[in-house]
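Retro notes (design track)

What went well: tokenization of the new backbones is finally stable.
What didn't: we kept losing track of which sequence belonged to which structure.
Fix going forward: every design gets posted as structure first, then sequence, in one message. First example under the new rule, 453 residues:
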């Protein structure tokens, strides 16, 4: 649930809600009463000024004591508004393509977030109330995050593929060059089909940023927060640790010839101009074992089909759950009632598996259970599951699985590139009428440049 917790925090910050931890600071930052009104029209949706103000104030709370790392208020407002626009567009696209999230799935995700914060769902609700955060807003932000996650998953399945030869090449590169690079970047974005004037302006901007860094007038992280158009601008442009196969070939060759602390000259790429900073280098062996959490569980599946509708399947699962709560043996009920033919004869036993092996809904449910605890009925594409967690363990990814790990790494890098291109296209095609800041003085256009940060 940690990954969901981090991403939920990002959406919560943008949607004007805070998880426990940034309390008094957020309240102080929000002491100025916002003016009601519309900050932007996004196709058929709107972003309210109060929504934008809360999101900006929450960013200020996150940077309390480090305000000098943030850009001027108007620039920060533009960055946050752009993120809100992208959230609106992604949620609308998800809903328009049939992606759905049930109320039960939202509550299940919130229960996982509460567990990560070591509180009960009710205590989480109380903390949000003390901080002045409406629980409805918080739930909506989690729903939006789940919708975006599923849209991204669907996108990955349809657009991203990794060939066996790519895996072979990456594994050979790892064997010969086991280096990993800790990177950060600054992006000066260009719209699709940029004009010569737009290219010249972007190049002048990125060269100016590089000059500030070279002269020591601003460190790289502060420059990223202030000037980068990347979605991770407010994180100082940090890209984390990347192995060779996670870096585009043109960048990887540069990294090998750089020393920690060095910054590249401006690089023209498909998204615009970039500056890359090499923060640290380590040998892959220094990263330690590739540990993953594995779960051992049993399940009972009640399928949804043409003959058994959703309500009937759910009712049957709830009846079985009641029997389990009354002391019935899980394995026996699985043998008698589970419609998963591969596991029913084994009492629903699934063996050891990783969190996402059976899909995100199943994995999120398992991750939220304690050993010997039985879940509520969990809805997946197959139907309703009752899951009993029997144990967890930390396991090193053996040689047998390293190929799959490399394939996943390459796929993740490809997905990142394709997804960012998809967001730029979606942003460029959208009608966005900004009504605050300098952009409010400009005429709304469906081909506005896409700024991710």
């Amino acid at each position: 649930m940690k990954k969901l917790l981090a991403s939920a925090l990002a959406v919560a910050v943008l949607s004007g809600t805070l998880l426990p931890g940034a309390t008094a600071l957020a309240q102080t930052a929000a002491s100025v009463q916002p003016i009601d009104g519309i900050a932007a029209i996004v196709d058929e949706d709107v972003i309210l000024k109060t929504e934008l103000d809360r999101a900006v104030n929450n960013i200020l709370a996150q940077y309390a004591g480090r305000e000098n790392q943030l850009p001027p208020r108007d620039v920060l407002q533009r960055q946050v508004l752009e993120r809100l626009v992208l959230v609106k567009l992604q949620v609308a696209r998800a809903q328009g393509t049939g992606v759905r999230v049930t109320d039960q799935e939202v509550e299940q995700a919130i229960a996982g977030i509460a567990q990560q914060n070591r509180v009960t769902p009710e205590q989480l609700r109380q903390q949000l109330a003390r901080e002045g955060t409406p629980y409805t807003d918080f739930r909506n932000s989690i729903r939006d995050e789940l919708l975006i996650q599923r849209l991204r998953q669907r996108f990955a399945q349809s657009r991203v593929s990794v060939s066996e030869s790519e895996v072979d090449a990456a594994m050979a590169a790892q064997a010969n060059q086991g280096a990993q690079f800790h990177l950060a970047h600054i992006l000066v974005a260009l719209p699709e089909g940029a004009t010569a004037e737009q290219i010249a302006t972007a190049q002048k901007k990125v060269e100016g940023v590089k000059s500030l860094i070279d002269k020591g007038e601003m460190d790289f992280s502060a420059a990223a927060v202030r000037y980068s158009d990347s979605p991770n601008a407010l994180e100082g442009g940090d890209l984390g640790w990347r192995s060779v196969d996670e870096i585009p070939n043109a960048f990887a060759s540069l990294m090998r010839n750089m020393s920690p602390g060095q910054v590249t000259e401006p690089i023209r790429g498909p998204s615009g101009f970039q500056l890359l900073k090499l923060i640290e280098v380590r040998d892959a062996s220094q990263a330690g074992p590739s540990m993953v959490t594995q779960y051992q569980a049993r399940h009972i599946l009640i399928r949804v089909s043409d003959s058994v509708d959703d309500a009937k399947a759910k009712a049957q699962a709830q009846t079985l759950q009641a029997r389990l709560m009354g002391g019935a043996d899980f394995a026996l009920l699985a043998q008698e009632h589970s419609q998963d033919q591969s596991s029913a004869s084994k009492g629903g036993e699934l063996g050891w598996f990783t969190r996402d092996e059976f899909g995100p809904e199943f994995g999120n449910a398992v991750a939220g259970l304690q050993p010997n605890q039985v879940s509520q009925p969990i809805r997946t594409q197959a139907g309703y599951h009752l899951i009993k967690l029997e144990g967890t363990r930390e396991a090193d990814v053996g040689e047998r699985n390293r190929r799959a790990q490399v394939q996943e790494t390459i796929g993740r890098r490809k997905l990142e590139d394709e997804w960012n291109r998809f967001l730029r296209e979606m942003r460029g095609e959208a009608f966005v009428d900004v009504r605050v800041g300098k952009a409010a003085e400009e005429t709304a256009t469906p081909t506005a440049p896409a700024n991710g940060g």
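Added context from the reviewer: Confidence is low (pLDDT under 50) at residues 1-35, 443-453.
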